[in-house]
User: What shape does this take?
Amino acid sequence: MRLNDTTDVAMRIMIYAASNGARRFTIDQIVAAYALPRSTVMKVVNALTQGKFLVAQRGRAGGLHLAQQAAAIKVGDVVRHMETDFSLVACMRPSSDCAISQFCKLKSPLTEARAAFLAVLDEYSIADIMLDPVLFGIRTPAA
Amino acid sequence: MRLNDTTDVAMRIMIYAASNGARRFTIDQIVAAYALPRSTVMKVVNALTQGKFLVAQRGRAGGLHLAQQAAAIKVGDVVRHMETDFSLVACMRPSSDCAISQFCKLKSPLTEARAAFLAVLDEYSIADIMLDPVLFGIRTPAA
Assistant: This one.
């Protein structure tokens, strides 16, 4: 059981964004912080701005920042937005090739289990998982 | 978020096994019931016998059958046995390439969410998801 790699990257970006506080940041700073491919970061930042988790401000004082307070953004909502395929097994997909799809009784326990999974993530906000900016070199440690 | 394809196949085989009741069945019957590749079915049956979910009886009266009553086998245990990688994101794997792995606070919510997922599946047994043998052509409908 895995989350998509793009969900993983999205969480890293949200952690970075929250750790920046009110400070604007750029795609290049994320690329540098995590040593991730620029194209991946661009794609995921785009998904996060579309999902209204990040705001991309244009212009000279522009840059990226969280769309809301970190404490108001649920981890579960970010995961829901990024995981485009939540079909745990074939019978949960419209194009199922399984011979018993229409009768299968496994869908209901799996749907319930998936809901329990997301319910736990809804209890956590991005503020709960943000890190000390010092770890990213965003702020230097106090002397 | 997906389960492995082999977990999906394992669930189909367990459903088939339970629907057979005390009747022995063969790999070829599973292949025919689901139109799955023989090599896949063999691999997964092997994993299920190793996990003591199925018993493979040799000899003339041989064949496969459930290792226990269907009601005694938890869906969660089959999923746990089949999902060899439960590392939802990179930082949950030993070979993580994420720059913040050692500090990351996302591991704990994800671990908790995964536990909630499996806890729901532990509430269901294979008996809960078995099907009417008629659907598999194992038994003909009563006249």
Observations:
- Chain A touches chain B through 48 residues (CB under 8 Å).
- The first strand of chain A starts at residue 54 and ends at 57.
